[in-house]
Amino acid sequence: MTRSGGFPPATRDDRSAQFFDTLAEGTLLLRRCVSHGHLSAPEVLFCAECGSPDLEWTPSQGGGHVVTWTAIHSRPDRSGATVVSAIAGIVELHEGPWLRARLLAADPAAVRSGAAVRLEVVETDGESIYAFRIVG
Predict the structure, then answer these.
(1) What's the pLDDT at 73?
(2) Which of 30, 63, 58 shows the shortest CA–CA distance to 44?
(3) In angstroms, rounded to a whole number, what is the distance separating the alpha carbons of residues 28 and 25?
(4) What secondary structure, in 3-state letters, does 20-35 show?
(5) DSSP secondary structure string, 7-21?
(6) Are 126 and 9 in contact (CB under 8 A)?
(7) What does pLDDT average to in each consecutive run of 10 residues of the chain (136 residues)?
(8) Cβ atoms within 10 A of the Cβ of 69, count?
(9) C-alpha triplet 27, 120, 70: angle, nearest 5°
């Protein structure tokens, strides 16, 4: 688990409590339609296939690849150099759903579309959140 003060805090409600409890243990949960088995991102309220609100939590393997990404730059430092403050991206999980997430990489130049990623749980001042570390 990584600790970072640079992430906005996440807060739970009754509907998200199981998601945050399980994420704090290192497992990302997805939403699965009880009727069709279609998998969706954690925040969905209805099945994209049939519109059913009958969804259950199911664990993700935690791996996938980068679909697209962008570097978010901070203001130039005193020397005039711009600094990458965060990398935001869309990750396609092995199970199929696409998630918006922070991408973690020691070198922002190492991020590429198609790059393999692995789930990393990040502690914030609120709840733990998910991010993905570039691997390989």
Answers:
(1) 78
(2) 30
(3) 9
(4) HHHHHCCCCEEEEECC
(5) SPP----TTTHHHHH
(6) yes
(7) 59 90 96 95 92 96 96 78 83 97 86 95 88 91
(8) 19
(9) 130
pLDDT at 64: 98
Q: Which two tokens stand for residue 84?
A: 């990458």
pLDDT at 61: 97
Find, among 26, 20, 21, 19, the residue nearest to 2 by Cα. Answer: 26
Instruction: Output the pLDDT for position 1.
Output: 52
Residue type, 1: M
Question: Are 66 and 88 a contacting pair, CB within 8 Å?
Answer: no
CA atoms within 13 A on the CB side of 50: 12
> What local confidence, expressed as pLDDT, does residue 47 receive?
93
- Record the pTM: 0.85
CA distance 107 to 66: 15
For the chain, the straight-line distance linking the first and the last C-alpha, in angstroms and rounded, comes to 19
Strands (E), the chain: 2-3, 29-33, 39-40, 55-59, 63-73, 84-93, 98-104, 116-123, 129-134
Amino acid at 101: A
